[in-house]
Amino acid sequence: MVRKFDDWWKTVPADLKAKARKGDESNKPLLNQVNYVLLHLHLAGKHDAKPTHEELKDWLHSGQVDVLRQGGK
């Protein structure tokens, strides 16, 4: 069983979430925003805080995270 994006997002430090999504909180998360968080977790050595490959794949395939912004902003 894989976590939902929102369940994982609740575990991300608030300052990192704010930097990744600043001004875009009302839209669905973008893959590049998730990648920003993953990079910073990796650089901080917080590997256990990163999602699994299966979770990332599920988030993309189920539409929990967008690869590109479709229309609008």
Fold and architecture overview:
- It is a single chain.
- By secondary structure, this protein is mostly helical.
- The protein has a domain at 1-8 and 27-65.
- Helix content is 48%, strand content 0%.
- It is built from 4 helices and no strands.
- The chain has helices at 5-9, 14-21, 31-43, 53-61.
- α2 packs antiparallel against α3 (31-43).
- The longest helix has 13 residues, at 31-43.
- The protein is globular.
- The mean pLDDT is 93.
Please tag this protein with its features.
single chain; 73 residues; mainly alpha; 4 helices; 48% helix; globular
Quick synopsis:
With 73 residues, the chain is mainly alpha-helical.
How would you summarize the topology of this molecule?
Blueprint: H1 5-9, H2 14-21, H3 31-43, H4 53-61
Give Rg in angstroms.
12 Å
Helix and strand composition category: mainly alpha
From the spread of the alpha carbons, the general shape counts as: globular
How many E-type strands?
0
Runs with pLDDT <50, length 5+?
none
Average pLDDT reading = 93
- DSSP helix fraction: 40-55%
Strand composition percent: under 5%
What pattern of helices and strands is seen along the backbone? HHHH
Largest sheet: number of strands, sense, barrel closure:
none
Number of helical runs? 4
N-to-C CA distance: 33 Å
Quaternary state reads single chain
